[in-house]
Amino acid sequence: MSTRCNIAIKLKEKDLNKELTCDGIHFQNTKADYPFMEVYCHHDGYPENAKDFFFNRARLTDYESVLNYVLQGDRTSFETSYMESGEQWPDNRPYMFASIEGDIPEQYYYIFMDGKWYYKERSSDNDQPMDWIELVPDAPAAPLPGDPDFEYIAREIKALVERLTDGKYTTTNLTKEILTRK
User: Fold this and answer.
1) pTM over 0.85
2) 79 with 41: CB under 8 angstroms?
3) Which of 8, 66, 152, 157 could form a disulfide with 112, with the two C-beta atoms 3.0–4.6 Å apart?
4) Cβ contact 10:67 at 8 Å
5) What is the pLDDT of residues 86-145, one digit of tens each?
6) Long-range contacts of 116-119, Cβ-Cβ distance < 8 Å, separation of 24 or more
């Protein structure tokens, strides 16, 4: 079963009533007439995955990067837009809205506004609106008292390698592979 979500951005005043272009992506023949722009995402839309993607993998933490991301259109997952799967832009371009109030269309709704990410979960009781919750990155592991700096750095490198390789490599097997190449 897919965990569907919507990903939105509140446009800055300077971008309203203009055709939007960001990193070479042009919002074709449509002015940003409304302050909210959103796209649909079909898979893995739960908050822990969103948090990891927005803050760690894609680093979508500023207005321009989020705008560029949303302008890519609807997505099969956080990582892949439908256009990357061969579908056409007009069928998958972002939607524009005047307001984000009321019930949400999918299980989760994420919005970037005023420099922060927020999310809302769909209520099982459609009469009861859910509150917006700020989506914040996990705090990096801090050095333990008395820990030499190199041990802290080693833990951070290990976590980074495992995250970047989706667990395929750890610092142990990566080190062995490098040493056997010599």
Assistant:
1) no
2) no
3) 66
4) no
5) 888 778 889 999 988 877 888 999 999 999 999 999 876 655 557 889 999 887 655 556
6) 117/50, 117/54, 119/47, 119/50
In angstroms, the CA 107 to CA 95 distance is: 18
Going by DSSP bridges, is the β-strand pair 108-113/5-10 parallel, antiparallel, or unpaired? parallel
Tokens representing 168? Answer: 């395929």
Model pLDDT for residues 55-79, shown as the tens digit of each residue: 999 999 999 999 999 988 999 999 9
- Residue 180 bridge partners (DSSP): none
From 49, 68, 69, 51, select the one nearest 116 (Cα to Cα). Answer: 51
Q: Please give the angle made by the CA atoms of 63, 64 and 65, to the nearest 5 degrees.
A: 95
